[in-house]
């Protein structure tokens, strides 16, 4: 039973890998920067969720300094820095992804017109390939960008909530 499950998983993994390779080929050269930026975005997002789920509770368990002391001010500043880490970069990468998708759209259309110029006619197969490339990169950029924006707002909301909780905790006698 275990061997069959492993074989099924490996088969699924191989098919998925082939689909990703096909998608990268169909999307053209802009798909590689899209992939790189997406991987960086996912890495930062996973790091932030790990921080909120594992590191932050330990940070909140530390003893609270007396209210209105320099230690309380430093503690609040440390907390704000820790909470906001990488959030601007996540927001920026989320804005870059749709722009990369648009770049892929433009390169796909340019490639289509170059092929039409080269072959002298607007053969549907040539046009379809270029338009397909344009749409794939646009879709990939928009989907990943929208994902990043949604996650950014979720992480930002969590950061503000923890910031308020920590400030209230510092002000309690």
UniProtKB/TrEMBL annotation:
Residues 71-166 form the MotA/TolQ/ExbB proton channel domain. The lineage of its organism: Bacteria, Pseudomonadati, Pseudomonadota, Gammaproteobacteria, Methylococcales. It comes from the Bacteria. The chain crosses the membrane at residues 30-52, 89-110, 130-155. It is found in: Cell membrane; Membrane. Its main location: membrane. Keywords: Cell membrane, Membrane, Protein transport, Transmembrane, Transmembrane helix, Transport. Belongs to the exbB/tolQ family. One of its GO terms (biological process) is protein import. GO terms for cellular component: plasma membrane. This is MotA/TolQ/ExbB proton channel family domain protein. It holds the Pfam family MotA_ExbB. PANTHER family: MOTA_TOLQ_EXBB PROTON CHANNEL DOMAIN-CONTAINING PROTEIN (PTHR30625:SF11), PROTEIN TOLQ (PTHR30625). InterPro entries: ExbB/TolQ_transport, MotA_ExbB_proton_chnl. It is a multi-pass membrane protein. The keyword NADP does not apply. The keyword Transmembrane helix applies.
């Amino acid at each position: 039973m275990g061997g069959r499950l492993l074989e099924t998983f490996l088969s699924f993994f191989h098919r998925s890998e082939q689909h990703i390779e096909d998608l990268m080929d169909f999307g053209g050269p802009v798909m590689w920067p899209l992939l790189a930026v997406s991987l960086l975005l996912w890495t930062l997002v996973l790091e932030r969720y790990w921080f909120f789920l594992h590191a932050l509770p330990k940070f909140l368990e530390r003893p609270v300094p007396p209210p209105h002391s320099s230690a309380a001010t430093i503690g609040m500043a440390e907390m704000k820095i820790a909470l906001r880490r990488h959030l601007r970069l996540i927001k920026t990468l989320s804005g870059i992804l749709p722009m990369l998708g648009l770049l892929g759209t433009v390169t796909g259309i340019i490639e289509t017109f170059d092929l039409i110029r080269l072959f002298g006619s607007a053969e549907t197969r040539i046009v379809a390939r270029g338009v397909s490339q344009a749409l794939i990169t646009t879709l990939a950029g928009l989907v990943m960008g929208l994902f990043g924006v949604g996650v950014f707002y979720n992480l930002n909301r969590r950061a503000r909530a923890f910031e308020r909780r920590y400030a209230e905790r510092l002000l309690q006698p």
